[in-house]
Every structure is written in structure tokens, then in C-alpha cells.
DNA sequence: GATGAAAATCGCCATCG
DNA sequence: CGATGGCGATTTTCATC
């Protein structure tokens, strides 16, 4: 079902991206739409896959994983981790994997407790392809909400 | 205040990373700790900066921004966007900026509505440094919770 | 940190515009 | 398709142990 998102949908998405814990009543006040309508809209957005989940954002450093890195992968053909992400199911250090165009197969974002743990993960990743890693010094922009496409 | 996270803290972090909309009562049931204690713990985690926010995760493609890319930047000295992220305040396409060690200054994650919009953003970014971009074909691992560091 | 209760809030159903 | 009203259930918080 591909009915485009209207003004109310985007107001709800804005609010819930900013604070996922807002109640339907509170959303109703902010968006100036009745609470039952809010609940219906939000459930529709969830069912349509527009909203994929609600998550607390945890600071990896404060949580004991201060070693952040980006690992560029050039996988060996069929063992490409982008087609077998389940290979990394038991690697809690792996936060994100994106598959790319170009000579870099994928980029893996990693959050490890220690340099040593990062080293071990790189060894593991090197089974699947050539790795090239860079440490994350800081995150000037950590997170941004998805904004309505202005057309 | 740097008191390390205990078992209860991690149970709460796990639950709230998985579903940020759980009530304190529901958390109380899952973590087997009384509701007032849950509320107190969660507020402490928020105040300590361990929990940085609660966000709905929105699928950029479903929300009208299907053109995702990673842009590697080699900034021109002082104009480096990692030290002046406010230069990108009015670029809703920019989702994330990480500063890196190595010859790549930073990587910028972008979600644009169209190829044309991506092109325009690249023009803008090229004012600050050399850009090298790769399209995101897919995201085999989109998101992972921060897990307790096993030591 | 647990308990218990009180006040406020929330979510949902049926109904109506 | 959205708004209103009201009910019951849930939640949050306070004081106390």
C-alpha cells in the first residue's frame, strides 16, 4: 500500500523521531489531531514499514565500548558478508553493515570495548575479505531525523 | 559520575534499545525490579548520558529518501566539516558525520530524495573538501543494540 | 531497593459529524 | 475518514518501611 505520507504523518514522524516515548495523547496535542486518529496513523506507519522500530540511543563510550571504527571490506566473491550478514550474528561489536557500489564491497561500523577486541574482530573479518580500517575520532553529527523530501 | 553499569542497568538498556516505548511498569516486569527503582535507574542513565535519546527508526526509502550514499571527505584545512558541523545544519540529507583517522577526514552518510538532490549536495560538500562517494545498495545490518562489554 | 495506595494519565470502544 | 465522550485499565509517583 503506497499512499504517500501527508502532513499529519510527517508531524508524527518528526515527533516520534525526536522522542519515541511520547504517548498518543501527547502526540495528539502536538500534532493537533485527535488521539484515536494518532493511534491509527502511527499503527499504519508501523505496518507500512515506515517506522521500523523505537530504540533508545546509547552512547557506546559511556557504555564501555569506546573503540569505534569503520572497516572497509573487499570481500572474496561468494563469502561476501553483505550477502551473508548472519556470519556476523555473534559479533556484538558490529553495529552496522552497508553494501556499496564501487570497489569497496561494504563498510562495517564497529564498537569495541578495547583495541584488543577490535584487533580480534579485524582478524575475524579478514577471513571474508580484505579489510581496511580507520578509527572514529569523534562523531560531529551522530544522528539526524529523516526529514520530509521537499519537492 | 562514573559508577559502572550493573546487571540491572544493562537489562534496562537492552530492553529500551529493543523497544523504547516500554512503560516503566512493563520494564519492571521484564527486569524483575520494582517500578520506582526502574524509573530511578532510567533517569540516572539519561542524566549520565548513557541514554542519549529515544528515537523512532524511519526507513528512508519508505519515507521518500531512497538515495543513500556514503561520502568520503578530504577537507581543506580549516574549513573541515568535522570541526564546523554547523555548516551542514541546513542539509537535511546529511544523516551522520564521523571523523576518522587516516587520510580520509570524515565520512558523511546521506539520504536524498533523488539522484539530482544527491548531486546538489555533493556540489555543496565539495566546497569544503575533496569528495568521493559511493551509493548504498543495501543495508544488510541496519542497526544493532550496544551490548555489554564482556570482559 | 521494595511496598502499597492515590492521583493522574492513558488507550480504546462506541457513537456521531 | 476524523472528532468526541466516557469508561476501565494502566501508569507514575509519593510516602513509608
TrEMBL record, chains A, B:
SMART domains in alphabetical order: HTH_ASNC
Top-level division of the source organism's lineage: Bacteria
HTH asnC-type domain location: 5-66
Pfam families tied to this protein: AsnC_trans_reg, HTH_AsnC-type
Key words, A-Z: DNA-binding, Transcription, Transcription regulation
Entry protein name: Transcriptional regulator, AsnC family
Gene Ontology CC annotations of this record: cytosol
Keyword Magnesium: no
Record organism: Allokutzneria albata
GO molecular function: sequence-specific DNA binding
GO biological process: response to amino acid
Amino acid at each position: 500500500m503506497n499512499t504517500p505520507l501527508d502532513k499529519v504523518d510527517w508531524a508524527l514522524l518528526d515527533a516520534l523521531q525526536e522522542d519515541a516515548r511520547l504517548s498518543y495523547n501527547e502526540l495528539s496535542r502536538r500534532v493537533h489531531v485527535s488521539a484515536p486518529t494518532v493511534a491509527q496513523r502511527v499503527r499504519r506507519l508501523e505496518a507500512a514499514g515506515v517506522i521500523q522500530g523505537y530504540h533508545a540511543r546509547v552512547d557506546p563510550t559511556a557504555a564501555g565500548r569506546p573503540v569505534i571504527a569503520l572497516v572497509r571490506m573487499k570481500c572474496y566473491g561468494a563469502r561476501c558478508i553483505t550477502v551473508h550478514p548472519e556470519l556476523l550474528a555473534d559479533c556484538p561489536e558490529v553495529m552496522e553493515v552497508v553494501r556499496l557500489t564501487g570497489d569497496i564491497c561494504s563498510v562495517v561500523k564497529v564498537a569495541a570495548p578495547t583495541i584488543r577486541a577490535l584487533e580480534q574482530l579485524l582478524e575475524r573479518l579478514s577471513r571474508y575479505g580484505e579489510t581496511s580500517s580507520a578509527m572514529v575520532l569523534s562523531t560531529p553529527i551522530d544522528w539526524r531525523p529523516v526529514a520530509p523530501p521537499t519537492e
